[in-house]
């Protein structure tokens, strides 16, 4: 029996892909295809990951990431790295990696500040009071 040629490929998915179970659906599809790898939310509001498998398995997963996703997601675009030949899997399965709470908290706070600044015409509308 011949050995299967394995490849590795990185991806990043843009759009409404957080808080819509995108990572869960991605992990389930990857496991169904027999892929190894990981995915995680980023502070930029995207989902990044890496997948390892045969060329056919990776192509099926690419289609899923571009056109399917989770039912409540909206996929605006996907970036894929080139498929790199590899001899072995680097992970035992496909996993969802956690983004640190600190990273998400800082991102949400920064996004809130940017939105407030945008709607105030770029002015700092912070109320300053002087104590007597």
UniProtKB/TrEMBL annotation:
Catalytic activity: an acyl phosphate + H2O = a carboxylate + phosphate + H(+)
Keyword list, A-Z: Hydrolase
GO molecular function, one term: acylphosphatase activity
SUPFAM superfamilies: Acylphosphatase/BLUF domain-like
EC number: 3.6.1.7
Keyword Cell cycle in record: no
Keyword Mitochondrion listed: no
Occurrences of domain Acylphosphatase-like (ranges): 8-98
Pfam families: Acylphosphatase (PF00708)
Domain of life where this protein originates: Eukaryota
Record-annotated active site: 23, 41
Entry similarity comment: Belongs to the acylphosphatase family.
Identification of the protein by name: acylphosphatase
Species of origin: Glossina austeni (Savannah tsetse fly)
